[in-house]
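Annex B. Sample input.
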Amino acid sequence: MNITLRDVTKRFTTTTAVDGVSLDIADGELFTLLGPSGCGKTTLLRMIAGFAAVDDGAIFFGTRRVDGMPPYARNIGMVFQNYALWPHMTVRGNVTYGLRLRKLPAAEIARRLAAGLAKVNLTGLEDRYPGQLSGGQQQRVALARALVLNPDILLLDEPLSNLDAKIRVQVRGEIRALQHELGITTVYVTHDQEEALSLSDRVAVMRDGRVQQVAAPKTVYERPVNRFVADFVGTNNFIPGVVKERTEAHALVDTPLGLIRARPGGVAAGGACVVAVRPENVTLHGAADNVVDGRVRLAAYLGNTLRYDLETAAGVVLKVDVGDPWQHEVLPVGRAVTAAFAASTAIVLRDD
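Annex B, continued. Sample output.
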């Protein structure tokens, strides 16, 4: 089931939480709404679900307009951030709650319960209560409760935020595999960039109620459209400057670090900009299109990487990631070094 949003707006007194959002979500797609707290992503999800009214615009499921329909008429499955499980009900009671409200035959309820628990690897836990389950198991119960309704659309509102890091990685993989197997259109809300990049077919990055960019995860990460997206999704170095030359293939930017060659963005010659380059694309003591002198200000061991902060004579600090710390001797603070990065790994962005 495809989802279409046209100029959808939601206001709360003097605040516009969602501001004229238009999206086309394909049938069977896992589509993620990504952004910081307060950007409007959960409000937008609640409008798709029918829990929040649409002030302006329209929402379609397929060809059916649904923004005037109550949630129960939309045939959705919803997984909430806090799971919303009944503590006095067993797993069986929680998962079959919606089926019993629909007054389905007992045999059909039993069949759907068994199939739903099997999908989320909870078979045999039917008689346990939520308080007897781990956080990951509770999340699976909430997911099973949504799936047994055979929804056309699955909506998930930060479903992993209450889990610890290791379980979060495990469960998000299970969600992606299950969604791919079922082929159900899914809208997923998160503020976690890694979650969005690893799960999604496409990502919509939101800010202040508006969509900044919609693209595949690789495109959002490697080709952000503005500084906000580049800064929110992953870590970036931002070097201020003015575009001196610009062609379809490259840009030459005058910066406090000297002239920098980069991929052109949406900034014309003569325009103020920032050059964005990710720490993993900067090397120490290398040779590339752009070479910068600096001194080690900080070295931080992150496990799979070692991150340096290099202070330049111009006062610009560059972050540099060493991808194999096991084979690298940590440089002392104050050591003079050179950092290098290719023009193809740097991009010119408008400084918004």
